[in-house]
Amino acid sequence: MNDHEQTTGNKLLHNWEKKSAEHQKQYKNFLQRANKNEVLKKLPQLHEEAFEKIDCLQCANCCKNYSPRFKTPDIKRIAKHLKMKEGDFIETYLRLDEDGDYVVKSTPCPFLGNDNYCSIYDVRPSDCERFPYTDEDVILKRQPLTLKNSTFCPIVYYVLERLMG
Would you say the C-alpha torsion 15, 45, 136, 96 has a positive or negative sign? Predict the structure, then answer.
């Protein structure tokens, strides 16, 4: 990354929450008319660039304010890792949301430490592993999710701004 890109990226991230809120309509319009192939071609590089600039451990907004879906394979894997029965794991940590998905009962996530490290990182739900979806077509396929994510995840904001740039 050259000095110009470094400076542009840092400038872009300054006050990003406010700018993201102001740009929601632009993001929506962009996503609706985006050339899928062009976007998918650019994503790997922008995803990598964003992760070079932004340290998730300094943020953890996703773990503090939202919950992934815990699908059956996730529940099985995590319960086994915690040496718990699946039913006990569900009863202790999860609830069903309005879509019928299992999510954590409370936020922040009970597996998030004060240092923003995840205590079940190696067996975390696949939603967590894939988040923030900036390297896959979810960014276009699930536009309402992308827009919501851009309001609390600086990586989604960064990638959208650079795509539109």
Answer: negative
